[in-house]
Amino acid sequence: MNILDEKHIFSYRKYWAQRFGIAPELPMSRAEMDNLGWDSCDIILVTGDAYVDHPSFGMAVIGRVLEAQGFRVGILSQPDWKSADDFKQLGEPNLFFGVTGGNMDSMVNRYTSDKKIRSNDAYTANGEGGKRPDRAVNVYSHRCREAFKNVPIIIGGIEASLRRIAHYDYWSDKVRKSVLLDSKADLLVYGNAERQIVEVAHRLAAGEKITDLKGIRGTVHFVKQVPADWTIKDASDIDISPHVIAPKNPYAMVDSNSSACESEKEKQKQTEIIVDSKQIKAKQRLKTVIRLPDYDTVKEDPVQYAHASRLMHGEMNPGNARPLLQKHLQRYLWVNPPPIPLTTSEMDGVFGLSYSRLPHTHYGKANIPAFEMIEHSVNIMRGCFGGCSFCSITEHEGRIIQSRSEDSIIQEIEAIRDTSPTFTGNISDLGGPTANMYRLACKDPKIEAACRRPACVYPDICENLGTNHDPLIKLYRRARALKGIKKIFIASGLRYDLAVKSPEYVKELVSHHVGGYLKIAPEHTEDRPLSKMMKPGIGTYDAFKAMFEKYSKAAGKEQYLIPYFIAAHPGTEDMDMLNLALWLKRNGFRADQVQAFLPSPMSIATAMYHSGKDTLHKLGRNQKSDMSIPKGIKQRRLHKAFLRYHDPKNWPLLREALKDMGKAALIGNGKQHLVPNWQPKEGGKPPSKSAGTQFRTQRTEHNHRRKPIKKRFKK
């Protein structure tokens, strides 16, 4: 992979409409278009979120990037999906509709892990719920097609990105087709997508048809047949070694006398040329597509689904990934390799665009909770090489870290200081998907381009990974030295296994950037579930905790760690949750509200959940790779109850479970017991506890909603 081969996203010749200049905010109505002097929009972006012109909102980023290319971009924010009327309000776009469900998958946004509808929506004005439909990408796309039949539709954002192939859908408990098919869209862009959407827009503006846009990295489309110059590596059966198939000649004569009853498999055998995959030459590899099990197969066979998931996750590195092919009914889905990551220069350009950093004036004085959370935060990087199996960041943003320059970040902090009407001197976060992966990368670009590991830090930190935190330390020091800046907090999730490699970083963080409490996510204490999560052992947490306390004491500060845990993750047994509960009690932690594992589309853990197989290792029907999957409502409730062992409402369930597990000795009223042997009357309260200090924090991720740990500290 050579990023120099990729065209810089800001090097295209600007579209003629650049003469209209930069809009103070992208228009949401015809009146705003008139004020800008527009007779039409070139591109209309449809989003399930309230429109906030801030670089933490994906649709604002895509809109401003396209505007910087010279295009006139309009926004349809949370349109009424019950008819096509709202989708006509800006008129017909000249080039295409761009559709997204929003910053979160619409199903994750609307439903809890127990499949209950959430009462509010952080991405909507005043937190109002019900402003977006289920599976918003599908619904919005259908309404766009109804409004203007011949306008191309391009879908993107996290909802489309994580549903780009046949995927397990937790809410319907079945494998669904690629969202490209269900939405009836023309093209899917996955990942952050600036690089590919810019190319697509310019090519459409130059007169190309949407059906001509094949082979663009980071896109998904349908093909009628595999091009003649491509070779298929057939990996569609878990029990058969992958083999190479020479593509059929589309112009070959067909024998009209051949039996109509001859199966497709028998026909294929006549043209197959089986070759040992090790003998494929490098040039041929560049023209090889991996055939996944068909949709009809993975829909009915969970093991084949797990096999397809392993294949897909093996093709995530843009340096060596090959296209994927998956048959959907009578059509072939073609998934191009991930896009080349943005360079630092390109990242600076994206974040340096003319964002107002405010909600659209249409919302008046309404509060948008998600905006209030990130209003004074600064995104310094993208991507994550952690590879946690329950998380989908890597599948969406990639595992190669894309960092902004220090100057670009400082300029944004200064802009917040100088322009935000609500700024009080505090920056709420300098981070991204993780707090401390800024400028971390493989030591050798050639090794990075060839690597096929799903994570750079599991089971141990790779010896080829650079773990130097000095650039981040330098950034922190420069940022907090700015005039008018009182405090800079670090609120993004911390990879403490990386942090312990840099004691100087931990000292810097603890001494200057913790507001009393620091959240980290060990997720569990037991090796069995941790090995399925691809997370480090609890010993690493203990090592970080010792450093945290040491530097807090040296700084003369009373500060505490807030650990987060997941209940009911694949591979977790009841005994694991019991041991976690005992650890929580020994360490004085009390969970407020806890989160059970939510099988988000495309994650490795979701494949485990659906198949019951350990997809981190090679699969085979005869291999003993079955694992414990907490699926039933009662067991999931029990696992959550272990995290809230202190709640009297959970005591009956826990007492019953402890007896069944042969652990009745943990029932009693002593310090060594987990739950008491008495139950307060309904509406009553347990005996008063010793005085202390309680706290709670809150954390929201793109594919989870995480709730806090509450700890009682003795004075």
Structure description:
It is a single chain. It is globular and about 75 Å long. Residues 250-261, 269-277 and 689-715 have low confidence and may be disordered. The chain has 715 residues and is α/β, with parallel strands linked by helices. Among the domains are: 3-218, Rossmann fold (3-Layer(aba) Sandwich); 223-250 and 269-338, no CATH class; 568-715, no CATH class. The chain has 25 helices and 26 strands. A hairpin with a 4-residue loop joins strand 5 (167-169) and strand 6. The chain has an eleven-stranded mixed sheet, with helices on both faces. A three-stranded parallel sheet has the order 20-21-23. Strands 5-6 form a two-stranded antiparallel sheet. The longest helix has 17 residues, at 538-554.
SSE diagram, text form:
Layout: H1 30-36, E1 43-47, H2 58-68, E2 73-77, E3 96-99, H3 106-110, H4 136-147, E4 153-155, H5 157-161, E5 167-169, E6 174-176, H6 179-183, E7 187-189, H7 194-205, E8 219-223, E9 231-234, E10 243-245, H8 264-271, H9 282-285, E11 288-291, H10 295-300, H11 302-313, E12 324-328, E13 331-335, H12 344-351, H13 369-374, E14 377-379, E15 381-382, H14 393-397, E16 402-403, H15 406-419, E17 426-427, E18 429-431, H16 445-450, H17 470-480, E19 487-488, H18 496-499, H19 503-512, E20 517-523, H20 527-533, H21 538-554, E21 560-567, H22 574-586, E22 589-591, E23 595-596, H23 604-611, H24 633-643, H25 651-660, E24 699-700, E25 705-706, E26 709-711
Parallel strand pairs: 1-2, 1-3, 3-4, 4-7, 9-11, 11-12, 14-18, 17-19, 20-21, 21-23
Antiparallel strand pairs: 5-6, 7-8, 8-13, 9-10, 12-13, 15-16, 22-26, 24-25
Helix pairs in contact: 2-7, 11-23, 17-19, 19-21, 22-24
